[in-house]
Amino acid sequence: MKRTLLAAALCAAFAAPAVSFAAQEEASPLTANIGLFSSYRFRGIDQTFGKSALQGGFDYAHASGFYLGNWNSNVNEGAGYPGGNLEMDFYGGYKTSFGDLGLDLGAIYYYYPGSEARGVSGGANNGTVDNKEVYVGASWKFVSLKYSYAVDDYFATRAPSGEKTRGTSYLDLSANYDLGNGWGVNAHVGRLDYKNFSNADYTDWKLGVTKDVNGWIVGVAYVGTNANGSCPWTTSNPYCFANSVDNGNNASADAKFKDAGRGIAVVSVSRTF
Questions:
Q1: Can you give the residue ranges of every domain in the chain?
Q2: Which of these, 93, 91, 90, lies nearest to 106 by C-alpha position?
Q3: Do 35 and 56 contact (CB within 8 A), yes or no?
Q4: Residue 152: DSSP 8-state
Q5: For residue 88, how many other CB atoms are within 10 A of its CB?
Q6: How far is C-alpha 97 from the geometric centre of its chain's CA atoms?
Q7: What CATH topology corresponds to 5-272?
Q8: How far apart are CA 216 and CA 229, in angstroms?
Q9: Which residues contact residue 37 at a Cβ distance below 8 angstroms, ignoring those fewer than 6 apart?
Q10: Are 173 and 232 in contact (CB under 8 A)?
Q11: H or E segment at 10?
Q12: Mean pLDDT lowest among 41-45, 184-188, 201-205, 241-245
């Protein structure tokens, strides 16, 4: 998966691995990326309890269209990863283009080493928190649409009723427009459909601007959601997160709480090598 500078700008505004359909300028099929973000928002939800995040990874894109990659970020255990503080994503797929139309098929595995899934699934699952998704994407010029589908319990969770959350899906509509002279604007709206857990369904959005400064992409974006995150936590407000939890996913005695879906400005600087 290879990013152009414009595609890297989108990543800077809303951190998560993203596939670019643009023509690749570098001769090498292997690239690396690194970025510093004032907050890590995944699908609009706070992953670092408002703290900064250092992120980076590697991508290999073959001339045939097949690609592989790894991306990593620090996270807060209260975002659903008891005992864990690192996210590691591994992905691969195939992309091609027909003129201005780009197509992408792939799969991604989210892994949180050191975490305990039992704490976020009511005993339904054991082992490390993870998530497995397949996705299909399409792009036309500066607009892209991507659909992701969880093939197992979504991030090791079960619904309050104990039902499985396999089949949770996320639809992402994004636009990334080059204004010239190193400036770009980007926008996004996404919808999470949480299987068997309707109180966890939500819509998120983003609007941002970026500037290329000698190869470094400086960005600022506003990210918001309508997720139910009012505190204290209940099954009706699943996005109220604590900054410190035990292996049973219970808040520590001195824990602080925060609405993880609240609107926030995210500032970032990133680069692809």
A1: 5-272
A2: 93
A3: yes
A4: S
A5: 15
A6: 24
A7: Porin (2.40.160)
A8: 34
A9: 12, 15, 52, 53, 54, 55, 266, 267, 268, 270
A10: no
A11: helix 5-13
A12: 241-245
